[in-house]
# Entry
Amino acid sequence: MNTTILALDLGTHTGWALYHRDGSVASGTEHFKPGRFEGGGMRFLRFKRWLTELLAASGALNAVYFEEVRRHAGVDAAHVYGGLMAHLTAWCEHHNIPYQGVPVGTIKKHATGKGNAAKEEMLAAASRRGYAPIDDNEADALALLHWAVETQET
# Structure
């Protein structure tokens, strides 16, 4: 596959996984919690700056996939997710990068065989693929990345 793919598990602790043209994978978790003396919008500015830095470091992005969440544990989480998704999709449009949301159940089923897999099962699935994710956010991004690589034509 001669393409570069970014997979994101959006949230205050955003999990990410990047598939490079040579087949190598980089992943991690970025934190976008506002500092004590920052306004709430700073998380979104830092998110956009991080995306731009990731684009510059990778040379190009052929596709972006993000975890499409339909139910949140609380109102604050829903607001953060919605803001990050809005900034991500606008950023992708600005850079002419195709993007797609993928339902959580689809990702979990592909990774574990169960659409309602627990965080521990997602971490175990990432470990079986040879990764050592820091947290469930990174594990989810890795699962999404493998779903994209194995099921999508990019």
